[in-house]
Amino acid sequence: MMADLSQPGVSKNKSLWRLKVGIATLIFCLSVSAVPIYNKLVFAEGVCDGKACLRKYPYPMATAFLQLSLVSLVLTFANICGHVWDRSAASWIFGEHMQYKLRHIGPVGILFGLKYGVTNWGLQMIPVGMHLLLQSTDIIWTIFLAEFVNGEDLGLVEVLAALLSAAGSFLIGLHAVDTIQAPLVPVLVNLLPPFILALCVSTLRMGAQELFRPDNEKTQGMSVVEFTAIKLCLSSITALSLAMLCETRQHNWWGALMEESNAGILLMLLGAVFVLIFQVNLTWLAGLTSVATVGIIGGVKIIPQWIINALFQQDGEMPMNVKWQTPIELDIVNASTGSKFILSWAQT
């Protein structure tokens, strides 16, 4: 099962491989769109489900720690259950060769924690549209690292696709924002995550190539769930370090968290669902393809991000039977059954 993860080009069934890449790409675009938009609501406005509310929680790095640690715990539990159910796979999260696994997963784990914390920090500073525009520069760094760090042989087609993807992302992002006026520091902060993301993809690919090798006796049968659980454990530790360093001065993040209701905390942690889907799928995609391919696919992400951001930020008539009833209430009508789902946001 894992053979095509490390060498997709020689897969015996290329149609199946293309199907996997297509599914992984679709999941990537949807999940990567949901994470920043939902977390922006947490940082800037608060979230309500109609009964319980989460007040504005302006602690982006603490939010990263809470969400990443929850996902890591869920994946660890899933890996343990899988090992108990089927012991044919030699590799599991509490198995042998942990030092060897950490050597290959450690860099990407630490970088993802840093990236997620800094991304949330930048997202807190500027509108979502501006944030998405600045993130479109990641394709340039990814292609650069693919060539000079991962040693991938990039042809003219790949380079041209990367350049067109970056140009398209920039134009779409430019159209998505009403203004590009922003203070220098927030802009610089939001230009840092694309470079860190490129490092993440580069180190993720190197780790996946090594640990998913079918002839690797130390990690025989290693799953994307185990890989991602270890990665996010390290990421959550990194995010916690950032939170303790930057968000404990006047009003510490854990004090603010304790002031929230239990239902409010659950609403904040709901973002972990999107993180779980995104992280597991990204590991799978990196194993299936290459650094350059993931970078090019990542360049497409601004299209669904822009659409979803426009859907949740604009007033007036919306497509697909979605209408804004009030400035804080979204009424979604099922055309076939006539049933309604109401989602509202708390105002600050």
From TrEMBL:
Residues 59-173 form the EamA domain. It comes from the Eukaryota. The lineage of its organism: Eukaryota, Sar, Alveolata, Dinophyceae, Suessiales. It holds the Pfam family EamA. It comes from Durusdinium trenchii. Keywords: Membrane, Transmembrane, Transmembrane helix. The keyword Membrane applies. The keyword Membrane applies. This is EamA domain-containing protein. InterPro entries: EamA_dom, EmrE-like. The chain crosses the membrane at residues 21-39, 59-85, 105-123, 156-177, 183-204, 224-245, 265-286.
